[in-house]
Amino acid sequence: MANTRKKTTIKKVNTSTNDTDAASLEAQTEKFLASGGEVQQIESGVSGQVQTSGPRHITLGKRHQTN
Questions:
Q1: 28-52 core/surface letters (b: 16 or more CB in 10 A; e: else)
Q2: What CA–CA distance (Å, rounded) separates 20 from 15?
Q3: Which pTM value belongs to this model?
């Protein structure tokens, strides 16, 4: 039986930290504030996710009987 397994190559991920190092973040923050941006203080426990569906009610037990 022939070997049908395909060979794959591992792709290197760009691990440069140009956009996330401390100096860059500080510079980006200063630029944001200088352009008129504001930083909001969010209370602990508040989520940024918006619930798009209503509550899901399930009923356990007997089904309704129809005559």
A1: eeeeeeeeeeeeeeeeeeeeeeeee
A2: 11
A3: 0.38
